[in-house]
Amino acid sequence: MTGTLTRLLRVLITLLSHHRRHPLQTLFLLTGLVTGVALWSAVQVINAHARASYAEADQVLGAQASHWVRSVSGDGVSVDDYVNLRRLGWRSVFPILEQRLTTADQSVINLIATDLLALPDEEAGTATGLPAGGWMQLVTPPHEAWYPETLAQQLGLEDGDRLTLNSGKALPPARVFSREQQGLRVFMDVGAALTLLDRSHLSYLVVAELPGDAADRLSQDLTALNPDLRLVANQQRLDLTELTQSLHTQLAAMSLLSFAVGLFIVFNAVRFSLSARRHTLTTLRELGVSQRLLLAAIALETLVMSGIGTLGGLGLGYGLSQLLLPSVAATLQNLYGAVLDYTLLVQPVTVLQAWLLTSAGLVLALAWPLWRQAQRSLQDQRDEPSQWQQDERARGRLALGSLVLALLALGLYFQLTSIAMGFTVLALILFAGAGLLPWTVALILRGVQRALPDSAWRMNWACGEGLAQLGTLRTALMALLLALTANFGVDSLVDSFRTSLSDWLQQRLAADLFVQSDTLDIDALLANPGDWLVESHRRNGLTVRWQNRPTQIRGLNTDTSDTRALPLAAETDRSPAWFDGEPGVVLANEQVRYLAGIDLGETVQIPVGQQTVAFEVVGFYHDYGNPAYQFYLPYQRVAELWPNAGEQGLGLWLGDYVDALASAEAALIEAGARPGDWTRREDVLAISLRVFDRTFAMTAAINALTFTVAGIALLASLLAIHQQRLPSYAHWRSMGVRNREWLLIAGLPLGIGLLVTWLLSIPLGTLLAGLLIYDLNVLSFGWTMPLIWRFEPARSLFWLTLLVAGFTFAISAVQARLRLPQALKHLGEDAA
Amino acid sequence: MLRLNQVVKQFAQPDGDVTVLSGANFHLPAGRSAALLGESGSGKSTLLHLVAGLDTPDSGELVIDGHSSLSMSAGDWNSLRRDRLSLIFQQYHLVPTLTVLDNLQLQARLSQRLDPAFRDHLIDRLGLADLIRRLPHQLSGGQQQRVAIARALLHRPALVLADEPTGNLDEATSERVMGVLVELVRETGSSLLMVTHSAHMAGFLDEQWRLQHGQLHQYHERLSQEPAL
């Protein structure tokens, strides 16, 4: 046993000596591992963190509870009903008030309030994020607002400070504490919050525990107390978890793509390092080292490498996640209103997953060459055919495998029902494209070679050199293709989305001024307007729960120009009935169609009070960025069905003269509005697009990082190529090849390879964008848009590729030039 | 054609400097061929590399085709190698992705001295006519070396430098390759300096020199025929 161990150690030392002699190869192997793991783990950390934030929010909300009491009409639960329930003996019921607030400096915060004294013992136990003691200050005037430390830092608050809201009101004095369980929420006493926000209704009640038949009894009590209240079982976790799932899936997919690109570097480095050590491995076998011992030593070496790669990758990934988190947080906040804490933690499971992924990548890279090594006799190993011939066969196999992948993708596409499946199709297409690339490049090189006249012998030589380089270059080109395709595809998606959103906003925001005010007397404003007002559009609405999701009901004036011009994504011949004010018809947002599965002409039952009312869906409209279901009804219809529906804003079209805005503002103030309650059309547009850009900053960041990883892969490949080809370069030099000839012959194949890669990335990227827009986007968010194809992203990527390739080629060429004199001295010693 | 004057070359080694050439002198007239013999590590290949400008002497002078190493830049060496010299190696150094025809024309094209009639003559003399569309890996070792010889002679160099050109070949093939190399070198009027371990192969050439203790000694001269132009 000791003898075997000693031999194993000796073999391992022999293998590792290669790294001492060739530190650059080792550096690139580790770079591939580290960068791949880094990007993947960064997104993992963010995803895990986001889920933890939702779970923490869940705890404080009391959503661990078995049931909630919600209002069917969406009005909330009145304080009287809550008190009556308590009086009926329901001690496990406690109130929650939630509100999103905007501060004076336009920061968005989430406020949560409850009655701490009403919390049952178990719930109080789960609310351990709250500081012990000091409850009296919270519940007695002037009250306190409790801030988690991170939020207080972001808002620049210290103990005792009062946060001013954009309404001009101020929250109670701050108390900052270090526990983070409630994420970025401000905690207040429910009584103080109701007074501060002028509200008479709670958001909902939480029921901590309902043993036996208590649920039925509570339901009966609720019906007796107020038919609008309903006991809802906590069948799903929090809405946020479900709503954001698709975004996290997309993030995970993008990070896996980056990991795959990183793996290409690893694959290249491992192959090169094995090929460089082929003679060492054969010599060891000739010296009596068994195949099994050799494999064990390689496995040990792999373990060491994966360990270093994992640790380095996680360290870098953690740093990256710190950089990416603000973008992700912005996306989540803009799309879903979910607020993330900025404190990150690496979980042990992430470390384990990273190590397993890294090891799997290394094993994947090692498996084929080692298997081939094991299959051949010792003599065969010495007389290995030229690398170039092997590569030609490998290219053929790759192309064949790619066709299989493409067929699989096609088969799966017609069965597409889930986001995960969609990403599988995407991955299959990407890898099929990547696998076909080397074969395509070789085909083109051969084609060019054949087409060249005899006089173009340098080009012919360069094409031949390209075929010789392709074996080493191919993985880098494949990695680059993935990065280019992802960049072009996602750029096209974001471009299409931005254009669609911008067009949609232009149509939707037709009025000159938009007013959102709690204090405005709209009737007074519109009763006797001056000539500054051309047209007005008053909206009302409320939120109800439909299909177990928050669902917005919006009342529109059907006669106004913006409603008349409302573009529908899908309509029937019954659509005009809605514009004519027919009571039984409704328009729905696309989310209702694609996420709730409602078809045109279908009837939906919308809760109204304690009953439901049937509506025929006669059209679907675009509603970008809205995670909730939404229905449009005529204003009056909403007012009739839900008498307590609130005003949801007012659109004003102004007269076409210089002072119209000033007159409108004066009239608004006279009618009770406050400065800041209205926004000009162009400002709303600008803010919306700014929010959009913030939302997609993260995808741009991940894309840029993937491209960087591909750039590193290219550099690693070029350095490897120049090292491998150095004896040939030395021989060329011995024939008197000039520098510019060398640049042409060694550089042109790279140029051709890059050109083919870039060209292939355009149709592949378009396919990717099409899949994302027409399938995954619809499955994820429930909205549709046309794919707007532009050449501009492809052109930018071309220049970027050229820049990266030029830079990497220059580095590798300088390196080759520096080593050429040494290679010349050894000319005749090295095998060609 | 080739003259070495007091050429010194040393290599730094962990256990001290090793002198491979200590003021070596040598002269090879135009149109003559010489074999360079010596023990392994005696510096034969180093001398060949110095003559090709692939390495530089520590002191002394080399005069190749009238050009003194003392006044030649790297660019001059490159031009000299391209236009007036050629090298033949044990490993052939053919470009694996070019056909036999493209390989054998390579240096002639680089030096812009491709003579199609002479090319066809060489192809014929070297028995390569049936192989010109093939790729190097489809040839035997002897065939590959014949392509390398054709490539080395096609631009009619003034001096051919050969480093163990038959080192990878069996005895019969070696003799055939050697015979055709010597014949063609004479035919083109080039000079030939060949490094070899084999006294038998050295016997094919006009002069035999031995490198020993950093000095070159001519130990035998065989009757040579007039070069056939």
Helix and strand element order of chain B: EEEHEEHEHHHEHEHEE
Distance between the termini of chain B: 17 Å
- What does the overall shape of chain B look like? globular
Q: Evaluate the radius of gyration of chain B.
A: 17 Å
Major sheet of chain B: 6 strands, mixed
- The count of β-strands of chain B is 10
Strand content of chain B: 25-35%
Measured distance between first and last alpha carbons of chain A:
42 Å
Helix content of chain A: 55-70%
Written description of the protein model:
The complex is a heterodimer of chains A (832) and B (229). Chain A is an alpha+beta fold. Helices cover 61% and strands 14% of the residues of chain A. Chain A has 27 helices and 20 strands. In chain A, strand 3 and strand 4 (108-114) form a beta hairpin. The two termini of chain A are 42 Å apart. Chain B is α/β, with parallel strands linked by helices and 229 residues long. Chain B is 33% helix and 29% strand. In chain B, the strands form two sheets. Chain B has a six-stranded mixed beta sheet with strand order 6-7-8-3-9-10, with helices on both faces. A four-stranded antiparallel beta sheet of chain B has the order 2-1-4-5, covered by helices on one side. In chain B, helix 3 (100-110) packs parallel to helix 5 (141-153) and helix 5 (141-153) runs parallel beside helix 6 (171-188). Chain B is globular and about 50 Å long. The two termini of chain B are 17 Å apart. The A-B interface holds A 385-386, 388-389, 457, 460-461, 463-465, 467-468, 727-728, 730-731, 733-738, 741, 824-825, 827-832 and B 45, 49, 52, 54-55, 78-83, 85-87, 89-98, 102, 105-107, 109-111, 137, 163-164.
Please render the helix and strand layout as text.
The complex is a heterodimer of chains A (832) and B (229).
Chain A: H1 2-21, H2 23-61, E1 67-71, E2 77-78, H3 79-87, E3 93-102, E4 108-114, H4 121-126, H5 135-139, E5 145-148, H6 149-155, E6 174-177, E7 185-189, H7 190-196, E8 201-202, E9 204-207, H8 214-225, E10 229-233, H9 239-243, H10 245-276, H11 278-286, H12 291-336, H13 348-375, H14 378-382, H15 387-413, H16 419-451, H17 457-508, E11 513-515, H18 522-527, E12 533-546, E13 549-556, H19 561-564, E14 568-571, H20 575-579, E15 585-589, H21 590-594, E16 603-608, E17 611-621, E18 629-634, H22 635-641, E19 646-654, H23 660-670, E20 678-680, H24 681-695, H25 697-734, H26 739-781, H27 792-825
Parallel strand pairs in A: 4-7, 5-6, 13-18, 15-17
Antiparallel strand pairs in A: 1-9, 1-10, 2-8, 3-4, 3-9, 11-19, 11-20, 12-13, 12-19, 14-17, 15-18, 16-17
Helix pairs in contact in A: 1-2, 1-12, 2-10, 2-12, 2-13, 2-25, 10-13, 10-16, 10-17, 10-25, 12-13, 12-24, 12-25, 15-16, 15-17, 16-17, 16-26, 17-24, 17-25, 17-26, 17-27, 25-27, 26-27
Chain B: E1 2-13, E2 16-28, E3 33-37, H1 44-52, E4 59-64, E5 67-68, H2 74-83, E6 85-89, H3 100-110, H4 116-125, H5 141-153, E7 159-163, H6 171-188, E8 191-195, H7 199-202, E9 207-212, E10 215-221
Parallel strand pairs in B: 3-8, 3-9, 6-7, 7-8
Antiparallel strand pairs in B: 1-2, 1-4, 4-5, 9-10
Helix pairs in contact in B: 3-5, 5-6
